[in-house]
Write a structure and sequence with these properties.
By secondary structure, the chain is α/β, with parallel strands linked by helices. Bound molecules: flavin-adenine dinucleotide (FAD).
Length: 971
Amino acid sequence: MTAYPHLLAPLDLGFTTLPNRVIMGSMHVGLEEVKDGFARMAAFYAERARGGVGLIVTGGIAPNDLGRFMTGSARLTTEEEAIKHKPVVAAVHQAGGKIAMQILHTGRYAYHSDLVAPSAIQSPINPLRPKALTTEEVSQTIDDFARCAELAQFAGYDGVEIMGSEGYLLNEFVVERTNQRDDEWGGSYENRIRFPVEIVRRTREAVGKNFIIIYRLSMLDLVEGGSTHDEVIQLAQALEAAGVTILNTGIGWHEARIPTIATKVPRAAWAWVTQKLKGKVGIPLVATNRINTPEVAEQLLADGFCDMVSMARPFLADPLFVRKAAEGRADEINTCIGCNQACLDHTFAGKVTSCLVNPRACHETILNITPTAKRERVAVVGAGPAGLSFATTAAQRGFDVTLFDAASEIGGQFNVAKQVPGKEEFYETLRFYARQIELTGVKLQLNTRVTASELAAGGYAHIVLATGVTPRLPAIEGIDHPKVLSYLEVLRDKRPVGHTVALIGAGGIGFDVAEFLLHSGTPPSQDPAKFFAEWGVDTSYAGRGGIRPAQIEKSERKVFLLQRKASKVGDGLGKTTGWIHRTSLKNRAVEMIAGVAYRKVDDAGLHITVGEREMLIPADTIVVCAGQDPQRELQAELLAAGCTVHLIGGADKAAELDAKRAIKQGIELAAALGEVAAKSAIQPVSPSGQVALTNHAGNAGPIFDTLTVSLENHIATIRLNRPDKANAMNMPMWQELRKAFQWVDATPEARVAILEGEGKAFTSGIDLEMMMGLGQEIQNDCEGRMRENLRRVILDLQDTLTSLERCRKPVLAAVHGACVGGGIDLITCADMRYCSSDATFCIKEIDIGMTADVGTLQRLPKLIGEGMARELAYTARKVNAAEARDMHLVNRVFDSREAMQAGVKEIATTIAAKSPLSIRGVKEMITYARDHSVADGLSYVATWNAAMLMSNDLQEAMMAHMGKRAAEFKD
Ligand code: FAD
């Protein structure tokens, strides 16, 4: 007997029977438009069909050009286009599934200049004003819907879903706020609903009786002037009469300011809306939104809330959801945590969708887990998300995996995250991994803080460090005051916190700590009544749209959320969830202050300066949420002992809220371990472990002996990595520097590069041993040929440095400690230079009896003026950081190396957010202007812009400006 009899009961639609009550809801996955997208979609949907879902609904496909989301988005208007869908449909049918195609006309939400709507009324979330459809165009659009459905049928689909909710075109016709037409498609309610009803009627006529038509009906608009419940009933009945097979539920327009699917929304919170329609129509009703476990779905069906359930994101998280439930293995389901980080946030950033807890989603043809040929022993240190993902995948492949954690339970920081109100779902990910550990045979050793010597003695073929992060403590006077706590002491150790609280750092963790401190009792995410009160949802549905004024629970505490950056507080939060976090804290009167300089902590509180203003925050408690550093203490000793070490997760990159990356990196390394992984490991070539290759199997960058190269958030970091040789530039380094900058140039995701050094010095310049070895290289019996060889070597060395200028992306040199000789040649090729206060600069060549020959003498005079360049080159005297700034060799001096790294990263982040095409133009123009006359430069820029100005970037920048939002540029 199954635990889910209602969920697994077949549904007879008359002409066809669905095997169970589960619909995989429509999601635009971004594959619709990419190269090989249809093949990838075939694999993606077929895997879900094999997993037993009753009916799949595809992402929205436009019935005509005007209905597309963007120029270039998918549409279905011809047989030729329909043929492309056939492999997708065939793959699903072969896997035993059924699939319907969603027809979506985006109406006034479209992001192209020809957007249309019932009336020319602009949406608050789109900078573009729509044009009102003419009466003829309305008729044409109806024809287009019917034709599109016919083509879907031709492609082999089992049905279509007509998208009538979320504020898209059909929904816009239904309500007065967006439909103020005076023809037969506007005015009375009957007139306004004529458009969707006519679309269904004509579609049914076109496709015949034996074809599923789902209609996604906006049952609760959640906007001012939305439909009343009686109107929804009237429309539902009209749709049924027009030929709809199944009515799906839509909740809230995109412009509604009420969260409907984020993790803060209680599970199945909106099922009452569907239930309200039960008994009013004779066709099956589908409940949607935040249904993520078979238990919840079963209960809804058993309690008569609906006839089917639709789940979308849960099928990204686990394609086998239904099959696992049916086979009594529900505890093996990888549960959707509603985070949106890799699905909706990706969609809105124009990236292919995936899933934080399942990075294989939409990458089925790319990321595959195959058995290993050799059962090697692997040690994993750290059972946080990265270690768990790696360990269980590697064990599944057949590796013999031992997983150590110092803590008494698995989960790492997820155990802290799940304490935050609204993040309770994180618990499910840990439940999933706990079960995977049992199933895959990972040998788990909790309460075990392993040392490097134990690991080295263990004889492991691979050691994976997934040791996470350590919270950063900023250097502020009085930071050791007893009223200062770390976020871990608050969230994990539950240390007492006073009435007035200042939070240092307003990243994701700062926001989470604020939420934690401002809630008491059951959080709204666990208590639907509290949730609806807080967000102003009227569950009696007495008025239009189902909204009413919000009622915020009063909090005992006063919280100040502070950040150094001058940008808007919370700017860096997720695209589709950031507004929810910001609204939630604003509702609770949190004071958010940007551009803060922290002066000191004392008994009176936290002393800060904001702009010119000095302030005292009379905080009883100050909580530090100021970032984190990678925890890698085992690495050096393991490398020195000759072990093969891999770094993943926070131990590799300590970005803040980045479980997405941690889990992805874990699974990718595990999938590649063996033949491919050997290339990506850190492998010492000497017992001292001095030579490091780049660090993981993810997306970092090429692997070098003398450089560490990584790529994160569009910023490539090239680090000179011969620390025990003071980063002296030997021949491999010269060669690798050129390759590294060629890679930056050729890698679209890399928009800007930072050049820095590992260890005590930026660089001591050219390696003298290399100079000695040159004789060998240029050797020739003929004096002339030997000299010519030497010339070629010098030209080649020059070319390495010129590669920084050739690279179309800006290069920011970040100098600490000594920068000597060849180092000056190197940094003068960078676009900008910065240094920490300990930096010194010296043109050393004169002291070793040579004329500097790889760029300093040619470039430096143009930076600091000829007189000063001559002085430094003739005397080889040291220049300190302050003097370097005064002579404009560096743009800025930072107090410490850490401050410089943070500061340079901030500048790089700003550059990376700009139009990559325009940045390339600026670099090209400034470099060109340096070496040519003003007239030549002006002529060149005119030609450049004549060719390059009319770009997508220009269009996007203007739309972003009009929409008062940050622009999003393609790489
Ligand atoms: P961790 O999770 O830090 O795990 C490291 C593990 O290594 C720990 O269990 C530690 O005990 C163990 N360890 C360390 N050294 C040793 C040793 N020598 N021997 C044995 N064991 C050792 N991310 C998101 O993507 N979205 C969110 O919404 C989100 N919210 C968050 C909220 C909070 C409050 C916090 C603190 C974090 C949040 N994160 C979020 C971040 C996310 O939790 C981390 O990105 C993720 O946990 C990093 O995983 P990891 O495996 O690299 O490291």
